[in-house]
Amino acid sequence: MPSLDSSASQIKTLSDKVPADAAIQMLNLLRFNAHGEYPSGTDAHPCSGRDAYARYLRAVADSMATVGAHIRLQSRVLHTLIAPQGEQWDEVLVFEFPSLAAFLSLLEDEQYKEAAVHRTAALMDSRLVCTTEA
Fold first, then answer.
1. How much is the average pLDDT of 29-36?
2. pLDDT per residue as tens digits for the range 104-121
3. Long-range contacts made by residues 71-77, C-beta under 8 angstroms, separation at least 24?
4. How confident is the model at residue 1 (pLDDT cuts 50, 70, 90)?
5. Residue 21's pLDDT is what?
């Protein structure tokens, strides 16, 4: 079953488990649709899922900078060595945030919310794992 968005209960659990003042990294595992799957009525030109995700990254760049976040790593996946059979990912992306509060404020940003249409159109499946440096 594809996982594309977090629920309110998942955000609550995140808030309960993550220290408020620690810098965090959000590990994204991304599997792209062959073609961006935009809702009808959206004026986005047809493109690949990967290109739709690139639109998303461009659209959220200012919002990310405002909260002090940046891309720490962006890599294409070549092969998944250890995983359940059939599990595959196209890209790994790590965003770094100065704090959990910065991440949560990004989720409430109007520009970020508007850009989410590109993310949703781009992705067949995803995982988002909150980490901090050991």
1. 97
2. 999 999 999 999 999 999
3. 71/95, 71/96, 72/25, 72/96
4. low
5. 84
Q: Is 35 exposed, middle or buried (0-12, 13-18, 19+ CB in 10 A)?
A: middle
Non-local CB neighbours of 44 within 8 Å, separated by 6+ positions: 36, 38, 52, 55, 117, 118, 121
Contacts (Cβ under 8 Å, ≥6 apart) of 97: 23, 24, 25, 26, 67, 68, 69, 103, 106
Angstrom distance (rounded) from CA 124 to CA 72: 23
Order of strands across the sheet that contains 91-97: 70-76, 91-97, 24-32, 123-131
The angle subtended at Cα 31 by Cα 10 and Cα 2, nearest 5°, is 45
CA distances from 95 to 44, 85, 87 (A): 25, 27, 22
Angle CA(52)–CA(28)–CA(59) in degrees, nearest 5? 35
